[in-house]
Design goal:
By secondary structure, this protein is of the alpha+beta class. The protein has helices at residues 19-25, 65-82, 109-116, 158-172, and strands at residues 2-12, 31-34, 37-40, 49-51, 56-62, 89-102, 121-122, 130-136, 139-145, 149-155. 28% of the residues lie in helices and 38% in strands.
Amino acid sequence: MEIVNIVATGVLNYDELDITELYDDLDDEISRLKPGRLDIQYGDETPLIMIYPAGTYTIPGATSREELQQVREKFINHLVEVTKGELSESSFSIKYMVFMHDLGEEIDLEALAIQLGFENVEYEPEQFAGLIYRTDNPSGVVLIFSSGKILFTGFEGKEEAETVKDQLMDQLL
């Protein structure tokens, strides 16, 4: 099972942030002003940082905790430098992680929907190519595709996703 996405959020020490003014202070090559937010990206292959006027920011797209930490540190250090210490971070947390597992064989989604029980499953192949399986303990969502690829989303860590994967494998085998 591999991490395919980590989404984290942080709060800056300003409740109201003038993102246009901040944009003017930043390098055009790394920042883009969008409606309602300022995007910063330090390279094509690095996670995006989205800053909002409420003083919050989101970092989606990291594929490891190390990558997330590196981008976060670069971002915070850059903000402190550009604003001469006015802006800093007051909190930061990982919101959820997305993992992928490849079963290596095709899955009959209709049969699986029946096996898992309709109370926790959504399967409408005309609207979405995968089966959506909602878990309670631990809480999260699993997207299962007939190709055998399985996405585990909404979990706070790999242990939770592994627990659900093991439960699912018991159902599949």
